[in-house]
Amino acid sequence: MRQLIVTGFMSTDGVMQGPGGDEGWRNDGWTFKAVDFDPSAYEIKGREQEEATALLLGRRSYELFAPVWPGMVDDFAGYNAMPRYVVSRTLETDDDRWPATVLRSLDDVRALKETEGGPILVQGSAELGAALADADLVDRYHLLVFPVLLGAGKRFFSTADRDWVKLSLVEHAVYSNGVQKQVFDVIR
Length: 188
Known about the structure:
Strand content: 15-25%
Shape: globular
């Protein structure tokens, strides 16, 4: 079974919205506006592109990334080369600039996990990440936690009332700018 990894940037109070920009949101671009840049904090992002064999996105993230990421050949060569999947009940067709296979349900994601291949990476996609966690489909989290409180905004983790999920911290680091890398395996 393939490993499903949810990865993302998160404020210390759990907000993931607009890390690189979200036009009209008061805290957009908080990863670079509120915290000094330390390139070593982003090492995991390069490693993800090398180790993952597929990218899984929610519809909104896909629609934001599709017009931009294909042109970012230096930063996102790995993401641009790997197969992409979009979970959506409403998306009519994929974007020709960044082709993807459309999955219609979490059952389709479960079936994808059962195929041969390496890790599947979920990038951005707040609602999808929460739904995958609630369906017990997430195997690992790659978090970069920024030393900033944002208050309101889309949360990284689900707010569903559910049984606890035990995690095992398998990798961590703290960088000069206060960003923390936290890699957790889900214990079943």
